[in-house]
Amino acid sequence: MPDGAPVTLPPTASDLAAARFVARHATPPVERALRVVTCLADERAILAAAGLFWAYSRSMKPDRETARRADHILGCAVVSAILPHLIKRLVDRKRPDRMVVRRHRNGIPRSGRAWDSFPSGHAVHLGALAQALGPMVPARLSPYLWPAALSLAATRIMLLAHYPSDVAAGLALGVAAERGVGAALGRGRRA
Q1: Considering the domain boundaries, does residue 189 fall inside one?
Q2: 7 located within any domain
Q3: Residue 149's domain is classified under what CATH number?
Q4: What's the CA dihedral at 120, 123, 129, 132 to 10 degrees?
Q5: In-domain check, residue 4
């Protein structure tokens, strides 16, 4: 039964097809490995890393640009932590592990609250931080930033915690959050 949010969002046919495909091909060793990897984008890990970066950058008496970047990263982490919780209060969507997995879970974990599928909070964090880190990453590594973020976000689909549309919406919300933080700090995104 839905949690009582004003909007109930059913999964699309392609979301269900993707979830069924993952459920058919899941194996306990792969699911265990993915559970470890997906923790890199967990809300607590993101907030801790952003907070440590901010504190470290402040402790070294930063130049104006470093201080600006630290503020931006911390702002993105905080906003991307709050935003999915707010949206989940407005939108109910049953998680794929509750929709397509029956008896044999094949290592697929039971994810969070049953009706909190939309949007993927991990993807919101990844979208915001990949966008914010873009100008900071050395040029030789920048071609890998978004593919790494997308791969990490895809772990949520492979664990059947979210549908592909939950992850896509989360990434888009993250990018929007990063731009909002940049505007709020008075420093629109650099080209």
Answers
A1: no
A2: no
A3: 1.10.606.20
A4: -100
A5: no
End-to-end CA distance of the chain: 46
- Residue 142 falls inside a structural domain: yes
Residue 54 CB contacts under 8 Å (≥ 6 apart), including other chains: 70, 71, 73, 74
Distance in angstroms (rounded) separating the CA atoms of residues 43 and 101:
26
Along the 191 residues of the chain, how does pLDDT read in single tens digits? 777 889 999 999 999 999 999 999 999 999 999 999 999 999 999 999 999 999 998 888 778 888 889 999 999 999 999 999 999 999 999 999 998 887 777 778 888 899 999 999 999 999 999 999 998 899 999 999 999 999 999 999 999 999 999 999 999 999 999 999 999 998 544 43
In b/e form, how buried is each residue of 58-74, taking b as 16+ CB within 10 angstroms? eeeeeeeeeebbbbbbb
Tell me the pTM: 0.91
Number of domains in the chain: 1
Backbone phi, psi, residue 185, to 5°: -85, 0
Q: Which domain holds residue 135?
A: 12-184
